[in-house]
Amino acid sequence: MKKFMFILMVAFVSGISKSYAQSMLVATLTHGDEITMFYGVYALQQAHAAAADGDIINLSGGAFNSVEITKALTIRGTGVLDPLPTSIKGDFDIRIPTTATERLSIEGCKVSNRITVCGTLSNAYFLKDDINGLIVYNASGNNLINGTFVNCNADAIQIRNSSTAQFINSKVWDFCNYSETTASASFINCVVHNWRGNVGSLRSVQLINCILFNDDSYNSYTSMPSTSSAWNCVAVGKGNESVFNNLSVKQNCTFAGIDIFKDGNGYNDLTDEAKAMYLGTDGTPVGMYGGVMPFNQIPTYPRITKMNVANKTTADGKLSVEIEVSATE
């Protein structure tokens, strides 16, 4: 990772509170060739209000207040890893009109509260995010269509109605499909963990090159519903022999002990021996570290990680602003 430091001397235009003389929350809105910056915990809300479909909002590290998303934007954070991840705090809805021609993209953000999809959200893209609860509102006409999650830590995703979703090289906790005959999801090179091994909620799903992981030492797996299918998958944990029993479509599915993981942790990489033994359809290891996009939550785009503003202007009326921007190799 490379870090770039910029020291700016800008002309002092108006008074600035001493509370800003420290690391600041910054939301940078890009609209065509125009760039506008907003500051503080409400910066995301203010940038969203000023944005149009297709615009880009870059967020610095820190915790921003959430906003109901009604525009098809690209929202980029600094990532979900320490030392200063980008967090969006508070429940929020996504309610984008079906007339929008752009798609919603959220990258490098940690969302600890619930996201509710209202109406039809098409082609939304979540990349390198931590998402703790995304649900399709329980009413007809509300759908997540072709929602894509890549390199995500996705917890408590709930789909209904005619929703479709795909998860690629991700950690997926407690996924639930409430519409067995109409909604569907696919998982490619994922580690899928459902509480107490309750994989009965994996209705109408396709599992390809995945690891099912049950870390509960008291409760055994349930069996996956017959409406689902699996290829080159491995079940790990108590009662794993029964996981695939009900599937009418399955190929090369097996079970293994927790010792296939490094340090015995289901979200760590496989041991070298397991990598050679448990291969997916593409010849790479099963699980989230195989496939074409191995799990990695470090953003690939430049991002503002820190911004400091001096307490006061210099004698000639200028204000010192220090911005730290990081980018991967």
Using brief descriptors, characterize the structure shown:
about 325 residues; mainly beta; 13-stranded parallel beta sheet; twelve-stranded mixed beta sheet; 2 helices; 30 strands
Give a brief description.
This protein has helices at about 45-50, 270-275; strands at about 1-10, 25-30, 35-40, 55-60, 60-65, 75, 85-90, 90-95, 105, 110, 115, 120, 125, 130-135, 145, 145-150, 155-160, 165-170, 170-175, 175, 185-190, 190-195, 205-210, 210-215, 230, 235, 250, 255, 305-310, 320-325. By secondary structure, the chain is mainly beta.
Can you give a write-up of this model?
The structure is a single chain. The protein is mainly β and 329 residues long. The chain is built from two helices and 30 strands. Strands 5, 7, 8, 10, 11, 14, 17, 19, 20, 22, 24, 26 and 28 form a 13-stranded parallel β-sheet that branches. The chain has a twelve-stranded mixed β-sheet with strand order 3-2-4-6-9-13-16-18-21-23-25-27, covered by helices on one side. Strands 1-30-29 form a three-stranded antiparallel β-sheet, with no helix packed on it. The model is unreliable at 1-22 (pLDDT under 50).
